[in-house]
Amino acid sequence: MTTSISPAQAWQRLLEGNARFVSGEAQHPNQSASRRSDLMNTQNPFAVILGCSDSRLAAEIIFDLGLGDAFVVRTAGHVLDHAVLGSLEYSVSVLNVPLIVVLGHDNCGAVTATKDAVETGEMPQRFIRDLVERITPSVLASLRDGRTEINDMVVDHARLTAERLLESSPVIAAAVHDSATAVVGVAYRLAEGRAQLVTDSVLL
Predict the structure, then answer these.
(1) Which Pfam family, any one, appears in the UniProt record (predicted)?
(2) What is residue 2's predicted lDDT score, i.e. its pLDDT?
């Protein structure tokens, strides 16, 4: 099982796994029958990843992880809602995970839909509209600062989602204040497979 590690050590472990994935030398760790048996009654993930639901963004694959390594929450555009916040608070307060990664990616369909809605004034229907409304502040922030490309907006959205997470959850904010965990924004590049930190952080 994973022993307690610092936020910086957790990020380094993710970086190393991503480097293996990028180079085509993935090790596929912790995927054995014995690992499955060890985890039957307990779990001790070293990171929680709030990622986009996009099929090209499977966190366990791009970071070369296995069973029990990461607590993963996925929504289109990695939007925050009560269920997501509850899941993340559980990971921090019960599982004591030292690192929360907000993971966005190039050519995100949810961010693209939001950009289109902002520019045309035409909102999508029903629950897709809810997604767009939650991403709109990030797109507006990008446009305000003169960034009009989708992938620039993706970076802004990952960074701002990390900030909103701290604003929305006193539980997570307290854990960060106590240095028990850290929250970072990360952007994934589809073509090269690399995950890059996009927030200022003590992890650097």
Answers:
(1) Pro_CA
(2) 44
> Which residue bears the tokens 């791009």?
62
**Residues comprising the chain, all counted:** 204
Tokens 């909102």 locate to 123
User: Which tokens belong to 152?
Assistant: 């620039």
C-alpha–C-alpha distance, residues 177 and 159, integer Å? 18
Query: Which runs of E-coded beta strand occur in the chain?
Result: 47-52, 70-75, 99-105, 182-189, 194-197
User: Average pLDDT over the chain, rounded to whole?
Assistant: 94
Q: Which domains does the chain have, with CATH numbers?
A: 7-197 (3.40.1050.10)
% of the chain surpassing 70 pLDDT:
97
- Single-letter residue type at 53: S
pLDDT at 158: 97
Longest alpha-carbon distance in the chain: 54
User: Quick one: how many helices (H) and strands (E) in the chain?
Assistant: 8, 5
What is the H or E stretch that residue 140 is in?
helix 126-144
State how far the alpha carbon of 185 is from the alpha carbons of 17, 25, 29, 43, 159, in Å. 17, 25, 25, 24, 5
Look at residue 84 and give its three-state secondary structure: helix
Residue 121 has pLDDT above 60, yes or no: yes
Section 130-134 average pLDDT? 95
